[in-house]
Amino acid sequence: MISPSNRAENISYAIREVVVYAKELERKGIEVLKLNIGDPIAYDFDTPQHIKDALYEAAENGYNGYAPSEGYEELRKEIANRERRRNGMDYDVDDICITTGVTEALQIFLAATLNEGDELLVPGPTYPQYNLITSFHGAKPVPYATIEEEGWQPDIEDMRKKINERTKGMVIINPNNPTGALYPPKIVKEMVDIAAEHDIVVISDEIYDDIVFEGRHHSTASLAKDAPIITFNGFSKVYLVPGWRMGYAIFNDADGKMEKIKNAFLRIARSRLCSPSICQVAMISALKGSQEHIAEMVKKLKERRDYAYRRLTEMEGISTSKPDGAFYIFPKIERNVWKNDKEFVLDVLNEAHVLLVHGSGFCPVYGKGHFRAVILPPIETMEEAFNRMDVFMKRRLAE
Ligand code: PLP
């Protein structure tokens, strides 16, 4: 046997790993209702036609070669325009780098920033990549608490306590995956102030910025224009093109504190050549064209959020906080019938044939005892899934 690297040992991605178990059932001809993956295209959402047309035209028009490593300037200009319109920010195109999804932006940024032994403050619970990639570089993800009873808002005091001389950065995911929490400007500002006090960089993941049901999302950099902040954003969710792998990173760095990190980021970006050229050209049209699909999507998701919230609140042995944005709900398993949340999720899969993701996959400390479901499916699909779960819960809790 030829051995793999030690650093690959701990790479495991809960959201996709549960699929392996579901596939086993499907091989036996059992229909599994999947509430596990944050991909709107897997349900009844579709990429707007003008964006699909733009991709085809880009290929026809010869955009089939490599793109610049930092991305086409015209796309970066459109992103700067969006930032001006939406967030009142005044970025230069050179502050922006196009990446192969937000996932690649965070992979490059953490590779450019973290040394072995460094620590990165991550929300507890978090989008798992922040834990995986931090550990991959021999650094340590340190979760700060978010408070379920307060709609999963960050615990500022906990965050403050967890900063030490090894802390290199702080991750804010707003709206959050997996909890759906939207943070008010005051809280975000407090978080950035703490980071500034300790000279650490703020990583702000805003991939769900336009998917908000109540209130308004404020970009982190717009609340603290002087602080060193890297913003990650992308097209997967809001523009309904997750498979096209289009994201970007924006450096907000008035005092030049991140200059060396930015250079390292761009060196790594050059070493991976570029992100897909035709998709970049299509994203120019996505930003310039009709934005109508966003309001339609949010309206549909809000109805689905309300339905999921009601059904899960009524379900025996389950309680849940109401998500304000994104497309997830993160309920708590109230009764201790199962050894852990993974056992719960596997039992739901094997007995009710509904696929969820275990909460500990998003944070072993603050995610455990929970599960994540997406609120993306049509109400009829969710109705069937929650009916099956209802029967399952009643049976198991009566045993
Ligand atoms: N960041 C967050 C918070 C996410 O939830 C996701 C996907 O679920 C991503 C990043 C990945 O986005 P992308 O498709 O742009 O890689």
Largest sheet: 8 strands, mixed
Q: Which geometry do the CA atoms define?
A: globular
Alpha-carbon distance between the termini?
45 Å
Under CATH, the topology of the largest domain is which? Aspartate Aminotransferase, domain 2
- Helix-residue proportion: 40-55%
Structural class: alpha/beta
Please report the first level of CATH classification, the CATH class of the largest domain: Alpha Beta
Low-pLDDT stretches are none
CATH fourth-tier homologous superfamily of the largest domain: Type I PLP-dependent aspartate aminotransferase-like (Major domain)
Q: H/E series, N to C? A: HHEHHEHEHEEHEHEHEEHHHEEEHEEEH
Number of discrete helical segments: 14
Please tell me how large the radius of gyration is.
21 Å
Brief sketch in words of this structure:
Helices cover 42% and strands 15% of the residues. It contains 14 helices and 15 strands.
Describe the structure.
The protein starts with 5 loop residues before the first helix and ends with a helix. By secondary structure, the protein is α/β, with parallel strands linked by helices. 42% of the residues lie in helices and 15% in strands. It is built from 14 helices and 15 strands. The protein has helices at 6-9, 14-27, 49-60, 73-87, 101-113, 129-136, 156-161, 185-197, 220-223, 259-271, 277-288, 292-314, 341-352, 379-398; strands at 33-34, 96-99, 119-124, 140-147, 153-154, 167-173, 201-205, 229-234, 247-252, 318-319, 328-329, 332-333, 354-355, 357-358, 371-374. The chain has two domains: 6-46 and 292-398, Aspartate Aminotransferase, domain 1 (Alpha-Beta Complex); 49-288, Aspartate Aminotransferase, domain 2, CATH 3.40.640.10. The strands form four sheets. It has an eight-stranded mixed beta sheet, sandwiched between helices. Pyridoxal-5'-phosphate (PLP) binds at residues 38, 101-103, 127, 173, 177, 205, 207, 234, 236, 242, 247.
